[in-house]
UniProtKB/TrEMBL annotation:
Keywords: Cell membrane, Cell projection, Cilium, Flagellar rotation, Flagellum, Membrane, Plasmid, Transmembrane, Transmembrane helix, Transport. PANTHER family: CHEMOTAXIS PROTEIN MOTA, MOTILITY PROTEIN A. It is found in: Cell membrane. The keyword Transport applies. Pfam families: MotA_ExbB. PROSITE patterns: MOTA. It comes from Azospirillum baldaniorum. The gene is motA. This is Flagellar motor protein (Proton channel). One of its GO terms (cellular component) is plasma membrane.
Length: 288
């Protein structure tokens, strides 16, 4: 049995492959780029762009945001959060319906010939969690042990992503606050130098640009990335939950039709499948 061949056949019948689709997340990039373009046009239409460049303001906002965020968490938490933020820009997604069909293909194959699971392991290396799940089943571990191990891994992975989103969310809150602090610093410098007109301009620039930098960093960059990490965590948890349900069901040697009901109970209403369609014998595609 070739899972790749059967998955391709299911795809031709109206389904989608469960193989993760890698590539740039266009929604994130387009959204961030559009916001940057709008801000850039507004800046350029009013005069020189150099007026919006102030190194002391950048140091206060960027350095202060990083320092306060790190103080709120740990160095490893902050490093992982930035890594996860970069990962959402190139996110490998799996279609939940394709995942459910793949699980049912495995269940049908294992029901006909249990040794099939070992044969398809090389084809599953593109999805590490599925590969581990099928390996546990193929090695004959008790279903309850498989369920505990896989659920624990799903929860641990989800908790890590939630923490990363929390770090980014905290940074998005700190950035505008650092901008306000920079504004106060600039105002104090300006009021203390009223007798020197040449120093009023730089102090005013510091006062205004730190607020600008903080607002842009917090609301245009960090907050959307935090939301994206949260959504990615939800999508990954759904896919891994489907794999967990499938692995436990196969280990218990349950009827694939019951497995289909269990999978549909987890899938969102718009993503539910009809793998064992009553009309399939008359040529209706599975999962239509």
């Amino acid at each position: 049995m070739s899972l790749t061949r059967d998955s391709a056949e299911a795809s031709r019948r109206g389904g989608r492959s469960a193989r993760p689709r890698g590539g740039v997340d266009m929604a994130t990039l387009v959204g961030l780029a559009a916001a940057a373009v709008v801000i850039f046009v507004a800046m350029a239409s009013g005069g020189s762009l150099r007026a919006f460049v102030d190194p002391p303001s950048l140091i206060i906002v960027l350095g202060g945001t990083l320092a306060v965020t790190t103080a709120s968490f740990s160095l490893s938490d902050v490093a992982i959060a930035w890594r996860d933020a970069g990962a959402v820009l190139i996110h490998r997604t799996s279609d939940p319906r394709g995942v459910a069909r793949q699980v049912l293909l495995l269940a049908e194959a294992a029901r006909r010939a249990p040794e099939t699971l070992r044969n398809v392991l090389p084809e599953l290396k593109h999805e590490s969690f599925l590969h581990r799940s099928v390996t546990l089943v193929a090695e004959g571990l008790p279903p309850d042990d498989i369920e505990r191990m896989l659920i624990g891994e799903v929860e641990a992975s989800g908790a890590g992503k939630v923490k990363s989103a929390g770090v980014l969310r905290r940074a998005s809150e700190v950035a505008p606050a650092m901008g306000l602090i920079g504004t106060l610093v600039g105002l104090v410098q300006m009021l203390g130098s009223l007798n020197d007109p040449s120093s009023i301009g730089p102090a005013m620039a510091l006062a205004l640009l730190t607020t600008f930098y903080g607002a842009v960093l917090g609301n245009v960059a960090l907050a959307p990335l935090a939301a994206k990490v949260e959504r990615t965590a939800e999508e990954d948890a759904l896919v891994k939950t489907l794999y967990t349900i499938g692995a436990v069901s196969i280990a218990r040697q349950e009827n694939p039709r019951r497995l289909e009901m269990l999978l549909n109970a987890v899938l969102p209403p718009g993503k539910r499948i009809q793998y064992f369609d009553r009309d399939s014998d008359r040529g209706s595609p599975r999962g239509a």
